[in-house]
Design brief:
The radius of gyration is 15 Å and the shape is globular. By secondary structure, it is an all-alpha fold.
Length: about 90
């Protein structure tokens, strides 16, 4: 299953709930999941990182569905076809 298929599956199963919850609630849940991911990374907990990455991706797809956005296209344009890494401030 590719990302666009996954997004469609998430929409089919959860869109009505997400629509009732609204964008600010979904954003708050995304922030909570990112915090949990940060904690798993801090602890170097690979299983926890995997779990929280799945939660973060789910929330991103839920938000994308709510706004009618397909992030897969932009991801490909921005990070595969282009290479923004030269503009990153890395040591």
């Amino acid at each position: 299953m590719d990302l666009s298929e996954l997004q469609r599956a998430v929409k089919e199963k959860y869109y009505s709930t997400d629509e009732k919850s609204g964008p600010l609630f979904l954003l708050a849940v995304l922030f909570e999941e990112v915090g949990e991911l940060a904690e798993a990374v801090r602890k170097n907990d690979a299983e926890g990182i995997e779990e929280e990455l799945a939660d973060v991706l789910f929330m991103i797809l839920s938000l994308a569905n709510l706004f009618g956005i397909e992030p897969e296209k932009r991801l490909i344009e921005k990070y595969i076809k282009d290479d923004p890494s030269e503009r990153w401030d890395l040591p």
